[in-house]
Specification:
This protein has 4 helices and no strands. It has 133 residues and is mostly helical. The protein has a single domain, classed as Hemerythrin-like (Four Helix Bundle (Hemerythrin (Met), subunit A)). Bound molecules: fe (ii) ion.
Length: 133
């Protein structure tokens, strides 16, 4: 299965944010691996839990950075994070319940694409603002 790569294009220039984005994609890849290897529910569920927790932790960090710097886009950015985590939980519990079917994995891949475009637009804007703050 193709892996998500943290390419130069995804770099925001903020060391903390970039490090966490890299780890986030690693967590996605670990879940994909667990699914494709048919590692069984216990191992798959552990990677699902890790991914959901990591996303929440990372979003909280970004929001703290926005709060501290009075980032003007905080409301919309926070709303995106909120919707994103809710939908990620829905999709991953679908994987957990129905198994890693093509349909479920398709939903996950679609949702990861949304994150990748958020990183390359909104998170870059945030990092640019933080570098001037
Ligand atoms: Fe973000």
């Amino acid at each position: 299965m193709a892996k998500y790569e943290f390419t130069k294009k995804l770099e925001t220039g903020n060391t903390i944010i970039d490090k966490e984005h890299r780890e986030l994609l690693d967590a996605v890849n670990n879940l994909m691996d667990a699914c494709s290897k048919g590692e069984g529910r216990t191992s798959m569920d552990a990677t699902i839990k890790f991914l959901n927790n990591y996303v929440e932790k990372h979003f909280t960090h970004e929001e703290q950075l926005q709060q501290k710097s009075n980032y003007p886009g905080i409301t919309a950015h926070k709303a995106f994070h909120q919707q994103y985590t809710t939908k990620l939980k829905e999709i991953t519990s679908g994987i957990s319940l129905s198994g890693p079917t093509i349909v479920e994995l398709g939903k996950l891949n679609g949702h990861i694409s949304v994150l990748i475009s958020h990183i390359s637009t909104e998170d870059k804007k945030l990092a640019a603002f933080l570098s001037q703050a």
